[in-house]
Amino acid sequence: MKVLGLSGSMRKDGNTALLVKEILKPGEAAGIETEFVSLAGKKILPCLGCGKCKEKKWCVIEGDDWGAIAQKMIDCEVLVIGSPVYYYDVCGQLKNFIDRTYSLYHDRKLAGRRGIAVAVNASAGADRAVKTIEGFLNSHELASLGAVTGKGFTEGEVMDDDNAMAHAKVVGDKIVRLLRPRHD
Ligand SMILES: Cc1cc2nc3c(=O)[nH]c(=O)nc-3n(C[C@H](O)[C@H](O)[C@H](O)COP(=O)(O)O)c2cc1C
């Protein structure tokens, strides 16, 4: 698939999911192959720091959902990756997911793709969460297509954040221009 939207929130239909999906909309409307994945309800065990991935080039932890989602990430061209802000940073579920991608780092399995960082906070902390996500994207040599932050507390509130919705459209349109270049 060309575009993968990933929400790290444990709220399946929460604000992060809604904002990520908003970014995917222009691409979907243009007929670009798109998939959305939520980490809600997924079993994502933490990195053990064992370093065995340096040899195996894949995480040695088995029996959870990390591998299937990591493979989708490897297969995509644009990754839209978002988190709710928990204590001024990304949430634990997304951090566990990211930490496990150390196994993809050794031979830069994600390099050359484009990335978009997304974070939703109630009042503060989205900037730092975006920095964390961009640190992940930069480490893996994905080029940034921008970052989108939103404001919301209860589920759905981010849809009332007009700035976030407008910015989601701007960045979503960039995805369309990247993957559907005009030839005239
Ligand atoms: C454990 C926890 C920590 C939070 N920490 C912050 C915070 O540091 N700053 C903030 O503005 N909102 C904080 N929030 C509020 C969430 O960021 C906010 O509700 C967000 O919209 C949740 O997104 P979601 O619906 O995608 O899960 C926190 C919420 C929880 C549950």
Structure description:
By secondary structure, the chain is α/β, with parallel strands linked by helices. It has a single domain (3-175), classed as Rossmann fold. It is 40% helix and 18% strand. It contains seven helices and five strands, in the order βαβααβααβαβα. It has helices at residues 15-29, 53-56, 66-75, 92-100, 102-105, 126-139, 162-179; strands spanning 3-7, 34-38, 78-84, 114-121, 143-151. It has a five-stranded parallel beta sheet with strand order 2-1-3-4-5, with helices on both faces. Strand 4, helix 6 and strand 5 form a beta-alpha-beta unit. Helix 1 runs parallel beside helix 7 (162-179).
Topology:
Blueprint: E1 3-7, H1 15-29, E2 34-38, H2 53-56, H3 66-75, E3 78-84, H4 92-100, H5 102-105, E4 114-121, H6 126-139, E5 143-151, H7 162-179
Bound molecules: flavin mononucleotide.
